Amino acid sequence: MKTSIPHLPATIALALVLALAGGTVAQAECLDNRQIQEAVSSGQIMSLADVLNSAGIDGSAQVLNVAVCDEGGRLVYKIGVLTASGAAENLVLDAQ
After folding, report:
1. Burial readout 62-79 (b: 16 or more C-beta within 10 A, e: otherwise)
2. How far apart are CA 59 and CA 74, in angstroms?
């Protein structure tokens, strides 16, 4: 007997993969949402919008997941995005 598994649309499957990967990344010395908000409010780090803008990321890119983590003594945004063309990218951008 042959079992058939329905195919997920590529974007849903990709989002699931990136979300799972983001969950693994978020376990390593990353800030929680409250800490991120406080760091942005205090000027310790830039907002996500400012970081994406300064990196030249197109405003039409869909953000799939975000983490702010300590990487070697500096804070970075770890961002999963889906571009307008459908390409997935994992970005590591300086938060300061």
Report:
1. eebbbbbbeeeeebbbbb
2. 26
Instruction: Please compute the mean of the pLDDT values over residues 70-77 and round it to a whole number.
Output: 94
Per-residue pLDDT tens over the stretch 1-44: 444 344 434 444 444 444 444 444 444 599 999 999 999 999 99
| Number of residues assigned to the chain | 96
> What are the phi and psi torsion angles at 23 (to 5°)?
-65, -35
Mean pLDDT of all residues belonging to the chain: 79
- For residue 86 the two structure tokens come to 């459908």
Bridge partners, residue 92, by sequence: 78
| Alpha helix segments (H runs only) across 1-96 | 10-25, 33-42, 48-54
Lookup: tokens for 90: 């994992």
Q: Locate tokens 């500096």: which residue?
A: 74
Q: Are strands 74-82 and 88-94 parallel, antiparallel or unpaired?
A: antiparallel
